Amino acid sequence: MRLSNLADYAVVAMCAAARHCGGGRTSAAALAAETGLPVPTVQKLVSKLSAAGLLRSTRGSGGGLQLARPAASISVADIVEAVEGPISLTACADGGECNVDALCSVRPHWPMINEALRGTLAGIPLTQLAGQPASGKPPSRNPAHPITAAPSRATQ
Q1: Which of helix, strand or coil describes residue 47?
Q2: Strand, helix or coil for residue 28
Q3: How far apart are CA 71 and CA 109, in angstroms?
Q4: Distance in angstroms (rounded) separating the CA atoms of residues 5 and 35
Q5: Measured at the alpha carbon of residue 55, what is the angle toward residues 51 and 60, in degrees to the nearest 5?
């Protein structure tokens, strides 16, 4: 199994957004600069992540993007599902068509497998990937560590 590039980029963008927690808002352009992702891709992700209730966008002076809830309460499963839809390894597990349905003895087991995978991804909070402790407070700056190094001028 492999995530789509868009789901992968969504996790990267959300990690960057999480590092801005408590430090005000950011923008799609700033997230793109910080992550190296193309601006149109980040804009598409912002739309999907906002629709899923993971990001909040505020217009106007002082506006921008911020997490819609604490980073500790956003999981990798939440992010993946915002982009990919429900986590499912096979089409038949979601009621999709299968060429060997009549002979398949595995189909009844796919929901359990999918739930195990989703449970694992749900157990990984955004804070863990973004380098934040579970409290949601940013870690102390460590210039030798890429996640905790001081932000670049492009993101300030």
Answers
A1: helix
A2: helix
A3: 33
A4: 14
A5: 100
Helix (H/G/I), strand (E/B), else coil: 75: strand
CA angle 136, 140, 18 (to 5 degrees): 35
Is residue 42 within 8 Å of residue 52, measured between CB atoms?
no
Structure tokens at 99: 């060429």
55's enclosing H/E stretch is strand 55-58
Closest C-alpha among 93, 143, 132 to residue 116: 93
pLDDT, tens digit, 9 for 90 and up, residues 81-105: 999 999 988 877 666 677 777 788 8
Tell me how far apart the alpha carbons of residues 14 and 17 are, in angstroms, rounded to a whole number.
Answer: 5
**Confidence check: pLDDT of 141 > 80:** no
- What is the C-alpha to C-alpha distance for residues 33 and 20, in angstroms, rounded to an integer? 14
pTM score of the predicted model? 0.79
Residue of 11, 45, 4 whose CA lies nearest to 28: 45
Q: At what angle do helices 39-51 and 28-35 cross, to 10 degrees?
A: 120
Query: CA 79 to CA 86: how far, in whole Å?
Result: 11
